[in-house]
Design goal:
The complex is a heterotrimer of chains A (271), B (120) and C (327).
Chain A lengths: L6 H6 L1 H28 L6 H27 L5 H6 L17 E2 L7 E2 L1 H22 L5 H29 L3 H17 L10 H6 L6 H15 L22 H10 L1 H5 L6
Antiparallel strand pairs in A: 1-2
Helix pairs in contact in A: 2-3, 3-6, 5-6, 5-7, 5-9
Chain B lengths: L11 E8 L7 E8 L2 H12 L7 E6 L8 H7 L17 H7 L7 H5 L8
Antiparallel strand pairs in B: 1-2, 1-3
Chain C lengths: L18 H12 L12 H26 L8 H29 L6 H10 L15 H20 L7 H29 L3 H20 L6 H4 L4 H6 L7 H18 L10 E3 L4 E3 L5 H11 L3 H13 L2 H6 L7
Antiparallel strand pairs in C: 1-2
Helix pairs in contact in C: 2-3, 3-6, 5-6, 5-7, 5-10
Classes of the chains: A mainly alpha (271), B alpha+beta (120), C mainly alpha (327).
Organism (chain B): Alteribacillus iranensis
Protein name (chain B): Ring-1,2-phenylacetyl-CoA epoxidase subunit PaaB
Pfam families (chain B): PaaB
Chain lengths: 271, 120, 327
């Protein structure tokens, strides 16, 4: 596959352009929604020092979403801010598990957020992100490959952080073990679509944009099995729907309403 | 008054040190609370060095540091001001002597400039 | 963000001080030396520092909450990142200050957990401004601009504080406040130069925050609310200026800027008296101030509830790791 150097070049081949845009939306929307959930935690983490470190990871991750939205901007999809704030749920490509609320309540009222869910989700997410970025770092679309390489440098810390949490809690009290394990089992029912690449998966592989779904899944599983004490033997499912196909839950609606509240109050204004 | 620190607690005190670049010494930053060294190290950089370069971080359990006590600081850090013989200050008169002999003095600037030796 | 308000924790009969040690201590203070955590210090000094710094620290932690309400809602990606970094810093300032306070409390066997319990019981107060509601995005701007402005005035005033660990924490904090000031200015500047609606939103926020901003520095004298710790903190060279001097400094710096943006404050009498060289303004309701800091402000209970849930609901995490991890 020949390397595509610029957005203009990418636009010349319709199949290439469509597959590329779909893939970049997945990256952008995954990072954006997971960092939105992270931003809801700010000030509410189990420990002040952890709150500060977690927020850095959230900010970095939103910064990554920003980079991907900018790639889309260059590819003619519209400006980064409107891509983040002004798309309906059915247009969003993030995996459904990442939009799931942090727990009961909202960040404004009765936030019974679950640290076990966050630790498990962030760990599974960062592991998945690493595998997918490593594949993207070899992408035929050079701007994507360059962005992926850049992000990987910073993302290593994120993965180390959540690996530490998942490892420590799994080796701690009985209560912690049970809480982590039940969130792992839950994740197994909901994580499925994260590892899929959507309707353009075959084109993506054929055009050298990314590896295939099987390879992605296999590498992710290999990593996860090393750190999760007891990986469920059942196959991964996508009980909440398929986000890669634009299927989403009520939780995403809540997220979009919140994150775009001010933006929507006047879309033309400069904020 | 001795500190009464609980042993089985999430809130263990760690002192945080960091190094800015290859040439800089390790510098004390601040302290944080963490349940173990692993976590202390993992969160230290984002707590204290979010806006500066770091190439290394150390965390040390507070109770592993034998620092001077208040009394020791008072007693051991005061010295008589009569140690010129130990520093270049006590040998400053050499500059004039060498000048009389039309030679320069081997001062700090001169000696540290010897880093580069002419290639033969 | 801080202001010292008298409250009733750690009150204890003042023991007979060792006169010799006390004299030596005061000589060090007056010579401008820094006192360290394990140095001998009079009980009054330790108690004053514990109250001041634990209140300062917990106010940063509680102060993260009103601004945080707008973190997930910030209108652009850049604003989302900026306000997140800013609120993260507030948590970080709380961390620095609580560490300083905790080391002062260590001889009493108190730790972070006790500080949180004191807050939830109502024994440890937090700053009046953080009991207020935030109604619009403009509130996030006004907090960043004016509330932080007031905080910068009072914190820089203590940059030479006699207590070494506090002074060093303040150095770190004030360095970051420069970013905070500009972050706040950027938000309000966009609103001030924005649409009619945005300007109205900004003016409304300034109007609502004005009394709280005047209260920020505390009453001018002890008579107003019945108590004030001003004298003790100046005696021990913890801070330099009085409440009123700080308030005047704040008005000096910020009122001309408020007016320059075409904004007003909800006090028709406010003006600069050239002869007295001071701002004349209408006193806020100091009884209301007392209510607010006694956790009877408009959002006191809600904010405490958030902190309580965050602390108690996550207790299992801290319990799980309280013992050395098995690797």
């Amino acid at each position: 596959m020949t390397a595509i150097e610029t957005p203009e070049q990418a636009k010349q081949d319709r199949t290439y352009h469509e597959a590329l845009v779909d893939l970049v939306y997945q990256f952008a929307d995954d990072d954006f929604i997971i960092s939105f959930r992270g931003s809801e935690w700010l000030g509410l983490a189990p420990h002040i020092e952890e709150d500060v470190a977690f927020s850095s990871i959230t900010q970095n991750t939103m910064g990554h979403a920003f980079l991907f939205y900018q790639l889309l901007e260059e590819l003619g999809e519209g400006d980064a801010n409107s891509l983040a704030h002004d798309r309906r749920p059915s247009e969003r490509k993030n995996a459904v598990y990442f939009e799931k609320k942090n727990g009961q309540g909202t960040y404004l009222e009765e936030p019974y957020y679950d640290w076990a869910l966050t630790v498990v989700r962030q760990y599974l997410y960062e592991t998945f992100k690493k595998v997918k970025l490593e594949a993207a770092a070899k992408s035929s679309y050079q701007p994507l490959a360059a962005t992926a390489q850049k992000i990987l440098m910073e993302q290593t810390y994120h993965l180390a952080h959540w690996k530490m949490w998942v490892t420590q809690l799994q080796h701690a009290t009985q209560e912690a073990k049970v809480r982590i394990q039940s969130r792992v089992e839950e994740a197994w029912k909901e994580f499925g679509d994260a590892l899929e690449l959507g309707s353009k998966a075959i084109d993506m592989k054929k055009l050298g944009l990314l590896c295939g779904e099987d390879e992605l899944k296999q590498k992710w599983l290999q990593e996860v099995e090393q750190h999760v004490a007891s990986v469920p033997t059942t196959p991964l499912e996508k009980c909440l729907g398929n986000g890669r196909a634009g299927e989403h839950t009520e939780d995403l609606k809540q997220a979009i309403n919140t994150l775009s509240e001010v933006y929507q109050s006047d879309r033309e204004a400069v904020w | 008054m001795a500190d009464k620190e609980k042993i089985n607690t999430f809130y263990k005190k760690y002192e945080v040190f960091s190094k800015k670049n290859d040439k800089s010494p390790v510098q004390h930053q601040f302290s944080l609370l963490a349940p173990n060294a692993e976590m202390a190290l993992n969160i230290a950089q984002e707590n204290f060095m979010r806006r500066e370069n770091v190439i290394d971080v150390w965390v040390v359990p507070r109770n592993e540091i034998r620092s001077m006590t208040s009394e020791e600081r008072k007693q051991w850090t005061k010295r008589l001001d009569n140690k010129d013989y130990r520093t270049t200050k006590g040998y400053g008169y050499l500059r004039k002597k060498w000048r009389e002999k039309e030679q320069g003095m081997l001062d700090e600037k001169e000696i540290l400039s010897w880093k580069e030796v002419k290639k033969k | 963000m801080y202001n010292l308000v008298e409250h009733g924790i750690y009150t204890k009969e003042k023991p007979e001080e060792d006169q010799e040690k006390y004299k030596e201590f005061m000589a060090r203070i007056e010579a401008g030396e820094k006192i360290e955590a394990d140095d001998w210090m009079p009980d009054e000094y330790r108690q004053t520092l514990i109250k001041l710094i634990s209140m300062h620290g917990i106010s940063e932690i509680m102060g993260a909450l009103p601004e945080k309400e707008w973190v997930p809602k910030a209108p652009t990606l850049k604003r989302k990142l900026g306000i997140m970094a800013k609120v993260q810093d507030e948590m970080g300032h709380g961390q620095l200050l609580l560490r300083v306070a905790e080391d002062l409390m260590a001889p009493y066997g108190k730790d972070r957990g006790d500080v949180m319990e004191d807050l939830l019981k109502g024994d440890l107060k937090f700053h009046n401004v953080f009991h207020m509601p935030t109604k619009t995005w403009a509130d996030a701007g006004v907090i960043g601009w004016l509330v932080d402005g007031a905080a910068i005035i009072s914190q820089t005033n203590m940059l030479d504080a006699s207590y070494g660990p506090y002074q060093r924490a303040l150095q770190r904090i004030c360095a970051e406040e420069v970013f905070h000031a500009q972050h706040g200015e950027a938000i309000i500047m966009a609103l001030a130069e924005g649409t009619e609606e945005q300007r109205k939103m900004l003016q409304d926020a300034v109007n609502r925050w004005w009394p709280a901003l005047l209260m920020f520095f505390g009453p001018a004298s002890a008579e107003t609310t019945g108590s004030s710790k001003q004298e003790v903190t100046t005696k021990y060279r913890i801070r330099k200026s009085s409440n009123e001097e700080l308030r005047q400094a704040f008005l000096d710096k910020y009122l001309p800027r408020v007016f320059a943006l075409g904004l007003s404050v909800p006090d028709e009498t406010v003006h600069y008296d050239k002869e007295q060289e001071r701002w004349v303004y209408q006193q806020p309701d100091w009884n209301e101030f007392k209510n607010i800091i006694n956790n009877k402000g408009p959002r006191s209970q809600e904010r405490l509830r958030l902190r309580e849930i965050a602390f108690k609901n996550n207790e299992w995490v801290r319990e799980a790791l309280a013992q050395p991890a098995i690797s």
